[in-house]
Amino acid sequence: MPAPTSSPAGKEGRKLSNFLCFAVYSANLAFGRAYKPILDALGLTYTQYIAIVALSEEDDQTVGMLGEKLFLESNTLTPILKKLESVGFITRHRDPADERQVRVSLTTAGRDLLETDPSSELIAATGLGEDFPVVQQSVTRLRDNLLRAPVEPAKS
Predict the structure, then answer these.
(1) Distance CA 32, CA 40 (A)
(2) CB burial readout 7-16, b (16+ within 10 A) else e
(3) Architecture of domain 17-119 in CATH?
(4) How many other C-beta atoms are found inside a 10 Å radius of the C-beta of residue 76?
(5) Residue ranges of the HTH marR-type domain (predicted)?
(6) SS3 state at 74
(7) What is the Cβ-side half-sphere exposure of residue 116, based on CA atoms within 13 angstroms?
(8) From CA 130, how far away is CA 26, in angstroms rounded?
(9) How far is CA 105 from CA 13, 78, 139, in A?
(10) CA-to-CA distance for 27 and 66, rounded, in angstroms?
(11) Cα–Cα distance for residue pair 74/66, rounded to 1 Å
């Protein structure tokens, strides 16, 4: 039996609704729309919010470590962290053992923000109920598989 392809063959397979990548992409956009009013009320962007969540897992992370967790380059992450520092949610400092490294930690205000659990409303909004953890794990596995897969362009 041949391996499954990214989309079924033929005209039906070329329908946008048959592309898993589009389903994931459009779900990401829908999450962004759902999060926007919640995070606007907190004065945060989604990327700022997930940076705070990632920092809550471990204090005193380097910018590089945090960037790896968030799939962001340091040149994208640094302005986000500067903004979070300016509003008092994080602290940044140079690593005394290696001045090239910047370390980041949540402040009390950053921890207090997470105590309000802004994302809790969205779990119910997904309509997944008990399937929520299964879907989350499946999407994580999909992401990890794609990051490991050596994808080569088709040769003409």
Answers:
(1) 11
(2) beeeeeeeee
(3) Orthogonal Bundle (1.10)
(4) 12
(5) 17-148
(6) helix
(7) 11
(8) 22
(9) 47, 14, 28
(10) 24
(11) 9
Domains in the chain: boundaries? 17-119
- Do residues 125 and 132 make contact, with C-beta atoms less than 8 angstroms apart? no
pLDDT tens digit sequence for 114-136: 998 888 888 888 999 999 999 99
| Radius of gyration of the chain from its Cα atoms, rounded to whole angstroms | 19
Residues in the chain: 156
pTM for this predicted structure: 0.82
pLDDT tens per residue, range 23-74: 999 999 999 999 999 999 999 999 999 999 999 999 899 999 999 999 999 8
Question: Which one, of 53, 59, 51, lies nearest residue 114 by Cα?
Answer: 53
**Number of neighbouring beta carbons within 10 Å of residue 61:** 19
φ, ψ (nearest 5 deg) of residue 9 = -70, 160
